[in-house]
Amino acid sequence: VCGPGCVFAPYCGDSVVSNGEQCDEGTANGSGYGHCTSGCTLGPRCGDGVVQASSGEACDDGASNGASNDPCRSDCQLKCGDGVKDPNEQCDNGAASNTGGYDGCNPDCTLGPRCGDGVKNGTEQCDDGKNDGTYGTCNPGCTLAGYCGDSVVQNPPESCDLGSANSATAYGQNQCTNQCKAAPYCGDHQVDGVFGETCDDGVNSGQPGSCSTDCKSFIPLQTCGNGVVNAGEQCDDGANNGTQASKCDTHCQWKCGNGVKDPGEACDDGKNTGAYGTCNPNCTLAAYCGDGIKNGPESCDNDGFNVSTATAYGPGICTTACTFAPYCGDGRVDSQFGEQCDSTPTCDSNCKTSSPH
Hints:
Elements: E1 2-3, E2 7-8
Antiparallel strand pairs: 1-2
C-alpha cells in the first residue's frame, strides 16, 4: 500500500514491528526455529514453553528458564549434566561422567553412595553420617571407632578388652566382662556370691581370721565372740556380733567394709572408696547414674525418668546410661528409629530424604 508522501505504508516484512505485529525480521521472516513467522508472529523458540526436540532443546519452562530453582538453563538445555554444580544440585561432573557408583555423581545430579551418607556401603565398616570417631561409633573414613570388643583398651571408658574373650560371666584375675570392665575375682575384697564366694578380705591366706584361698569359707578365730578385740579382729561385741544392733559381723570384722551388703547398708564392695558408681566409706551409694544428679562421665541424669538405651529417642531425653538419646538433628543417621538422613541438604525436618529439585 502506498501511503501519504508516496512512501510504502507499514507492512509485515519491513523489519519494523508495528500495527500489532509480535515481531518483524524483514526478509528473515519465516526462516524457522528462533525466527519470526511470515505472518510476523513469534515462531517456535527457546522460551515458548514447548520443548522443540527437533531443534535441539532438552527442556523449556518458558519464562522460568535459567531461574535458580529451575532445572532448565536459559538456552533450553538441562542444568544437570552441564558440568556446573547449580544451587539445587548435589553434584555435576558432566553428562558423560554422571554415571553414579560409589563416590560418584548420579545421572540426576544427586550424590552416589559414599562415606558420610549414613548408609553402610561396599567395604565400609560403618557409616552414621557424622563419623567423628566418638567411642562406639564411626571414624571419618567409615571404619569402626574404638568399641568394647575390639581388643584395644580405650581408657576411658574401658578398663580391659579381650575382644571375643570378653564374657558376661567372666570371673577371675585378668578376665574381662562384656562391658569391658575387670571381672570379679577372689581377692578383690568384694564377696561375689554369684560365683560361690562367701568371704573375701583381699588377703585370703587360709589362716584364722582370714578367708580360704578360694574365697569359699572363712577360717574362724577362736577368740571371736569373747567381747575382747584380740589379734586379727577389728571388733568384738560378744554375743551381739552379726546382729542388727552391732556394727561387727560374726567374724569380728566391721560389717561396713566386709564386702557383703548387710542389712541397713546401701552397698559394700569391700573397698568403699567413694569413686563414681561404687560405695562410700560409710556404705552408702557414691554418685551413680540414676541418682538424679549429673556426675562423673554423665551428660544427663533424670533420676527415675531415664529411658532404656534401646528405646530412648528424641531431643533432651536421657538414657539409662546417662547419655542423651539420639534424635533427628544430631547429625547421625539413626536408622533403627526410621531416620533416612540427618542434617544433609536433602533431609527434611523428620530426617526423611527429600528430592534435591
